[in-house]
Amino acid sequence: MANYSTNEFKGGLKVMLDGDPCNILENEFVKPGKGQAFNRVKLRNLITGRVWERTFKSGESLEGADVMDLDMEYVYTDGDMWHFMKTDGSFEQYAVDKKAIGDVEKWLKEQAVYTVTLWNDNAIAVSPPNFLELEVVETDPGLKGDTAQGGSKPATLSSGAVVRVPLFINQGEVLKVDTRSGEYVSRA
Amino acid sequence: MTELTRADDWQPTATIATLRERARLLATIRGFFAARGVLEVETPILGHGGSTDPHLDSLSLTATTPAGRKRLWLQTSPEFHMKRLLAAGSGPVFQLARSFRDGEVGRRHNLEFTMLEWYRPGLSLTALIDECEALIREVLPTDPGPLRQRRYRALFREALDVDPFTTSLADLRRLAGQVGGLAMDDADRDGCLDLLMSFVIEPQLGRGGIDAVVDYPASQAALARKRLDPEDGVEVAARFEIYLQGLELANGYDELTDAAEQGERFADDNRQREALGKPSVAPDQRLIAALESGMPAGSGVALGVDRLIQMALNRESIAEVMAFPTPRC
């Protein structure tokens, strides 16, 4: 991969730092009136998800990271790995391990399209679509006619996620949920 | 071809109301100098020579001139041209000049910016600091507090308990490395001091008053005279920097008038540039010639107008007081 100098740093650039691929979030130029300049850089470690703040001398460079975000359809799990397939018609599949799947495990739905982050052609992270339609597999019985009043109860969805839903929702209903906040949006 | 990154990319980042305020403040600045008998001048943005300062990156272009194709440098400040006017007998001059510095990008920086630069033949550095203060007070809507002269050495002693002139390089590297969280093993003294200045001292400056930092290390003299400090007996640079609200606003010199020394500093700068792996910059031979013919002794200062306007209008970034910062140009 190419090397990137601090003056090429910008939001979204993927670079290697301490052996991990990172996404640059912010790059601030710092310089006393006269004299040497520095760059204060915020980066997200794409393996751990942690945000790092590092200082570089202006002109220093980092190796680029071979990181790609690809759309992939979730296919199945064999218990150890989760399998995704490219949506470009190649039918090429990638196996994702527990570490890379992380919290997204509870938002998996077959045939839904996820963003899979590949580093050196290995999956290191998966992000779900912002909205998913999922069936309620378990919740307390709905309150008939109670469609206006506030109040909520927990409901377990087919993917395993538990969300707060209005009291009128019944088992077997399909709901639209926001995966970013884990909140109920509407009936699908 | 230009690439739109957002649908509203064509819009200015400053509101039209802000641009009106900006125009009013520029008129205030011009009025300030007119009242003091300082002549407004305009000098070229391009020059056959550029700034050799090892820590400034100049932009250049090739253009057809009456003497054929030439490489010309976009000026990092109007300093050289204005000094040539001084040598030609202009008397006190000021300029609002568009200046260019490659790589300077951020909340406080823009690739091109407006520099207010003025020169006062016969004026002492202290008198020029007072004039800076007067201008800042005229532009700001509220009282920024008293002017305080702060010695470079004392600032380091107070904030970091180190002496910037006598502490060993090994100790400075260790401290700078700790503060910045990066390896400073190959940094020189000034590199370490610059990091400590930027990260620890600067953010505290100009709080509750206008701070004028004076008596810089001689190695940071740039285009200022050097002199022996009567208090400490060490050689210091006769220059100052004005800080307000943690931001560097102005940089002033008791101007170097010695042509031979100026030539040596240009050569020194280019040697440092080479060591840093930076391209060398053609020194301005006409400035050297002007100094040889005789430039009156005096002081000069450059002030970042966008930053001053940003402060006067209480904005978060200089982009908010510029019509089109570089990403939208």
Explain what the structure shows.
The complex is a heterodimer of chains A (188) and B (329). Chain A is an all-beta fold and 188 residues long. Chain A has 3 domains: 3-63, SH3 type barrels (Roll); 67-127, OB fold (Dihydrolipoamide Acetyltransferase, E2P); 131-187, OB fold (Dihydrolipoamide Acetyltransferase, E2P) (Beta Barrel), CATH 2.40.50. Chain A is built from 1 helix and 16 strands. In chain A, the strands form 4 sheets. In chain A, strands 9-8-7-10-11 form a 5-stranded antiparallel beta sheet. In chain A, β8 (82-86) and β9 form a beta hairpin. The longest helix of chain A has 4 residues, at 98-101. Chain A is elongated. The N and C termini of chain A lie far apart (45 Å). By secondary structure, chain B is an alpha+beta fold. Chain B has one domain (16-144, 206-328): BirA Bifunctional Protein, domain 2 (2-Layer Sandwich). Chain B is built from 9 helices and 12 strands. In chain B, α2 (79-87) runs parallel beside α8 (285-293) and α5 (169-180) packs parallel to α6. Classes of the chains: A mainly beta (188), B alpha+beta (329). Chain A: The modification N6-(3,6-diaminohexanoyl)-5-hydroxylysine is found at residue 34. Chain A: Residues 132-187 form the Elongation factor P C-terminal domain. Chain A: Keywords: Cytoplasm, Elongation factor, Hydroxylation, Protein biosynthesis. Chain A: GO terms for molecular function: translation elongation factor activity.
